[in-house]
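Can you give me the bound-state structure? Components:
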Amino acid sequence: MSTGRDGIAGLILLAVSLVLLVKSFQLPSLPIVPVGPGFYPAIVLSLMAAASALLVLQDLMKRRPAAAAGEGDAPRRNYRLVVIAFAIVGAYVVLLPLVGFRVATVLFVGALQAALDRPRTARQWGVLAAIALGTAMASYFVFERYLLVLLPRGAWTGF
Amino acid sequence: MLDLLWNGLVNIAQWKYLLPLFAGTFIGVIGGSLPGVTITMTVIVVLPFTYGLDPLAGLAAMTGVYVGGSTGGLIACCLLGIPGSPSSIATTFDGFPMARNGEPGRAIWLGVWASVWGGLLGALFLVFLTGPLAAIALEFGPWEYFSLFVLAMAMVAGLTESSLLKGLISTAIGLLITVVGHDPIGSVPRFTFGSQFIGGGFPFLPVLIGIFAFAQIMTDLEKLNSPRGQAVESLVGTKLERFSHLKVNLEIFKQPFLLAWSTIVGLIIGILPAIGGSASSVMAYDQAKKFSKTPERFGRGHPEGIIASEASNNANVSGSLMTIMAFGIPGDAVTAVMLGAMTIHGIQSGPLFISQNPDIAYGIYAAYILAHPCMLLICIVLMPLMLRVTSVRMAVLAPVVLVLCVVGAYALNNTMQSVYVLLMFGVVGYVLVKLGFPLAPLILGLILGDQIEINLVRAIMTDANPWLFLTRPISGLLLLAAAASVVLAIWQHWRHQNRLAEEEPDF
Amino acid sequence: MARTLVTMAGAAALIGVLAALSAPAMAQYPDRPIKMIVPWAAGGDTDNIFRPFAVEFQKHIGQPVVVANVGGASGTTGAREAKAAAPDGYTVYAVHDYIHLTFYAGISDVKYSDFEPICLVAATPSVLTASAKTPWKNWQELADDAKKRPGEITVGATLGSTSHIFPAMIEKAAGVKFKFVSYDGLAPRMNALLGGHINLTDSNLTQKGKVEAGLLRYIAIASEKRDPEAPDVPTLKDLGMNIVYEVARGILVPKGTPAPVRAKLEEGCAKATKEASFAQAMKVQGTRVAFLNANDYAQFLAKIDNENKVVMTDLGLIKK
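Here's the bound-state model for the whole set.
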């Protein structure tokens, strides 16, 4: 696979654990607790730092296959779609408290469907809209009316 | 004792109890099968309805939810690759690959039948061993709990095939996630960088749902060929393959030891408070793999993996019921709600519970036993409907599942913060999967992190002598077992790699 | 009433779009379900007290009262959530004494004065409880032993919360020294006490069954008078310590909630706490119904806040 992906992951984790390790020593301790709040995190972080360092080492020592065989053989991955999907979920989460559960859910379900499988005919758009509306309505009624979970209301819309 | 149980069964068989039991089981199966809706949430939802019922009817409904939910979780595991509830995590590891290999029916029914048998076997223990076993659990002080958790982690870190080191790092990441936020002893904020958002820490369920749901859905999206035009492949085949219930049952009973041991693992973890179904599923899975003649087939649709996970999580329910009935100590959030319902009805749980309220105690046993046939019936009737899920296009399924995840995270604490955590750990989970880090040890780290720390500090606060961890007999034995487990894992791993090197020279 | 409505409708029309968003809430309060934030997990003591209360409360309010368990960070998450909620009467906050303690311990930045009081609902007297594996049969034996072995008798407590403050007050009054071990929540404390992993803890009358079974021992109750449920348990006052410690639970709403809305809630609370079924539900929780109206509750809160501040200062736990 790609050169030293494990190594890079290991280095990042090592850096994170070392930074947090330093921070864990700076935590204030309480008079009535014999070990401070940094005691346990320091153990976990030392463990993590050691394991990450070993991972880097292992990656460096690994006999690397000739660079030829690589991503080419693997089935083509559609990473663009993943990024778009994450962006749409992100927008949904931001919109939820602003426009309320019902509106945001209609928008989200519609947008993600369109991004994954764009409808081409008017009928397909209709189906898409119906699913978006249906999901929002059904989940709202089931949760708010029957399960008594009060879903977020919009700060902008009050709906 | 048996005549009391018989009376309990006759009592429960009345419509006024049978109906709530059936309804509870039904709601449990549905709630369990929806990713993001946990058994805890389902039982909380049922709680207000039980206020108006007679106490036993209410408890029967909740027992039904508990049993139904523990089984319902496997449906989403097999069909979507997302645990429908945390207690069925390990079912995903083999259920989903099996379903993808064209055997969704076998995967699901193996799980359902394993649940039934594991649950009924658990019932035997529930009825006869409630008293003595719970007495042992009570002897567990902070030292024993700490050592037990260390053992659990040692066992699961060795679970991963790819890299022992990555399993270890995953565990550490899981533990680390629980460290963030106010510390559990003195509430000193840790690693929050002054942010109020992080200040409360990361609640377990949103992290879990985020990591699993996103890792799964996003890796599926990668495989969609083009965003435009072409038909989109569904997750698994559109209908169940031909299979026979008899064959599935034979498959389970061909390995009585696997079934029995998974049940016992689930039971023990259920009895010990504060661990819960998710750990029992993962640990039984690990045990099954350790004892299996074909450990290399795990993770690729091995029936043993499904049987172990599902038998243990239903047995876990009987274990939790034991602890709550003998001592009034809830083993997990679900039994905590049940305990609340009991006190609201004026029933004192505790050591006198069984002798003072034999009708209710044996009624609960009976409800637990009868919930299993109810659950089976519901699964048979509902399955064709449930399978429709598989024929839904990914473009429709992904948004709907994500909405449910968001609602589930939100409803947990009724705050948007949980939803932000969900999204954040969605990204984390996806990245970790892409980097080849196994998720199961991470999840166990998450489950046990707080408890390990609390018990470690408690032990030190109670007595400053660190050798107590080794000199207290139960604790010492558990630590010894943990060390043995690590050595075994390293040895197995080494052997595995040697074999790999021989079989596949320089690929 | 009709005139108020007309005036309000007129005002809403004048202010226009902005007001249209919030006006419907005012017109006929309440016209949708009310969310009751319980800052602890479902099945806990507080939850067990407020769920039956919500059932009675909604009868007199005319809309469903939905309990929302917003747990986490020693109750602080729920407190923040309640403080940030819209002051429209659709979010009420079920609180107990922890609000004072977490503030002074520096855990939380939310103070009781960030809210408007509605009513006090119930009070649960604390009971000092010993493990059956300890030799002490009564307070005198415990006190003698504690004086001989300072700092060795273990007490399970949620550090910085009510279960810590109460034994600490006894420490001070009796001139002894305990060793505190962190156990969050009543259930884990009972577990440890039954197993003998701690010697003492703060509990309440809900544990009566275990005491009767000989698994635990009640040493003393911190109420004004002996409780009819447990007449053999002496009060701390009987034992010569001037300590009355009850966990008081009540209802607050975010600051800025309109007076008519508060009046409606207060009225509903007053009626709900008078229901016989509520009294029965509280009895099994080892709790007494303790209604105070908004004015009295405000004074009560100020008094308790001050007392807690003094205790926290004495104990050296104060950060603010």
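A couple of observations. Chain C touches chain A at residues 21-22, 33, 35, 64, 66, 68, 159, 180, 182, 316 (CB under 8 Å). Residues 294-315 of chain C form the longest helix (22 residues).
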